[in-house]
Write a structure and sequence with these properties.
The structure is a homodimer.
Chain A: E1 10-12, H1 17-26, E2 31-32, H2 46-59, E3 69-79, E4 82-84, H3 90-100, E5 104-116, E6 121-135, H4 140-148, E7 169-174, H5 176-180, H6 184-194
C-alpha cells in the first residue's frame, strides 16, 4: 500500500541498497534493473554532473522496459566546488572526513524519471536536489574508529548518514533522503504526475 | 562495534521502537527498561516540557540501575506555540495533517542522561534539540490515504518521517534524528563525556 498510485510498472535503474530501502519505505512496488552506463563526465558543474549521470543510468535500460516508469539517480558530495567521490583507500577516507569536519558541505542527488511507451521515451524529467550537511568538529581518533568499521569505503564523501556516520553530523538543511541517495518525496510526487 | 566507547552499562528508558532502531544504528549495546512516569505537566514552554518529561522517564528507573548510564527522551510537535500530541482518532489525525500542510513546524526532543553511582545519581544532563520541518502543501486525498495506512495513529503530530510520512515532508533544518525521536549524534557524544 502506498500513498502514490502508479498505473505502470516501476523500474529502479540503481544497484544501491540504500536507494532500494528508500523506495521500500514509500510502499511502492518496483523491480531493479541496472546496466553499465558510461560514468565519465567532463561537466564541472555539480548539478549538471549528477543530472547527466542520472539520465545515462535511466536511458541505459529504457529499451528493455516499454510502457514503464524508470528512475535513474546519482549522488555526490561537494565542498568548495570540489566533487568528492568514493574514497580509494582508508587514507583517502580519513583525508576526506578531516576535510569535511566542522564545515558545511553539499550533497547533490540528480534524478531522471522516464515514462516509456511501446516504442521509446514518451516523457522525461530530470532534476537535482541539494541538501546542506554540517559536520561536527570531529577529532581524528573518532574518524579513525569510523573508518575501522569499513562503513565509509563505498560511499561518496566517505560517510553514510543513515549508518554510524550519523554520529558525525550536526545538522542538515534540505531533504534528508537526498543525502541517503534519493529525494524520495519529490520522486514519488513527480512519478504520480507522469502516469 | 561503535564509534563511542562506554565503560558502563547503557539503559534506554523508552519503549519506542524508533528510539531503539536509532540506538542500534549507533552500534552501542544497551538494554531497555521502562517505568510509568507521570506525564502530566503544567509547563507551557515546549522546551521545558520535553526536558521535564525526559527527566521523569530517566529518574523513574534510576534506582534499579546503579553504576550505569540512563537515557530518557520525549518528543513533541509544535506549531504556533501549540503542542500536538498523538491523534486520538482518524478525524483528529486528518485535522492535524491539514493544519501542518504547506507550513513549517518544530519537532522538539528532550533528553536526560544520567550517570548513576552505587548509591544514586552522580551526574545528570538535560537538553532539548529542535528541528524545523516544512511540509508540502499536501492535498486531502493524499492525507486520507496516509491515514488509511494507520501509520499516523501512534505518532506525535500524526506522521512518521522515517516511514511513508517522508512523502509529506519537503525539507528540514536541524538533526533528522531529533524528528525520529532521539538526537543520536549529540546523545552519543554527551554519553562519551559522562563515562
Amino acid at each position: 500500500m502506498s500513498l502514490i498510485q502508479l498505473s505502470l510498472p516501476l523500474i529502479l535503474a540503481s544497484a544501491s541498497p540504500r536507494r532500494r530501502e528508500l523506495l521500500d519505505q514509500s510502499g511502492l512496488s518496483y523491480i531493479v534493473d541496472v546496466s553499465d552506463a558510461d560514468e565519465t563526465c567532463d561537466t564541472k558543474d555539480p548539478g549538471e554532473y549528477v543530472m547527466e549521470l542520472s539520465r545515462r543510468k535511466a536511458t541505459a535500460i529504457c529499451e528493455r522496459h516499454p510502457n514503464s516508469l524508470i528512475i535513474g539517480a546519482d549522488t555526490i558530495v561537494v565542498y568548495d566546488d570540489e566533487i568528492l567521490g568514493k574514497p580509494s583507500d582508508e587514507k583517502e577516507a580519513l583525508d576526506m572526513l578531516m576535510y569535511l569536519s566542522g564545515r558545511t558541505h553539499q550533497v547533490l542527488t540528480g534524478v531522471t524519471l522516464l515514462r516509456t511507451s511501446h516504442s521509446g521515451i514518451l516523457l522525461s524529467r530530470t532534476f537535482a536536489e541539494v541538501t546542506n550537511v554540517t559536520m561536527y568538529d570531529n577529532d581524528r581518533d573518532l574518524l579513525q574508529r569510523y573508518i575501522d568499521t569499513k562503513e565509509p569505503m563505498d560511499k561518496a564523501g566517505a560517510y553514510g548518514i543513515q549508518g554510524m556516520g550519523a554520529l558525525l553530523v550536526e545538522r542538515i538543511e534540505g531533504d534528508y533522503n537526498t543525502v541517503v541517495g534519493l529525494p524520495l518525496a519529490r520522486v514519488c510526487r513527480e512519478l504520480g504526475d507522469l502516469t
